[in-house]
Amino acid sequence: MSTKEKVRERVSFKEATTVNNEIVVYNDDVNTFEHVIDTLVRVCDHTPEQAEQCSLIIHYNGKCTVKTDVYDKLKPQCIQLLEAGLSAEII
Question: What is the CATH number of the domain that holds 69?
């Protein structure tokens, strides 16, 4: 096994052990598609297309995972989503 292959394996393992939380946004009868999209772009660094897709998934499925990362990085983003009036939680 070459050195490059060993490095790749270690990186993959590290990612698998550290990225273990998700921000889930839930559907509600209050927020518009435009507000949800704008908020996801601003808070979660989504592209407009990503945010639109998430908003449709939220609408039709009742919820959508909008961000995956370590808890400490997700917490301030989840707080911003909540402050914007979205229903969200970290799981």
Answer: 3.30.1390.10
What is the per-residue pLDDT for 1? 56
Query: How many CA within 13 A on the CB side of residue 12?
Result: 6
Task: State the Cα torsion 26-32-36-41 to the nearest 10°.
Answer: 170
Query: Based on the structure, what is the number of domains in the chain?
Result: 1
pTM of the model: 0.80
Q: What is the residue range of 21's domain?
A: 3-90
Angle at 30 between CA 24 and CA 31, to 5 degrees: 60
User: 87-90 and 63-69 as β-strands: parallel, antiparallel, unpaired?
Assistant: unpaired
Distance of CA 63 to the CA centre of its chain: 11
**Is 89 within 8 Å of 77 (Cβ atoms)?**
no
* pLDDT tens sequence across 55-89: 999 999 999 999 999 999 999 999 999 999 999 99
Indicate the SS3 state at residue 47.
coil
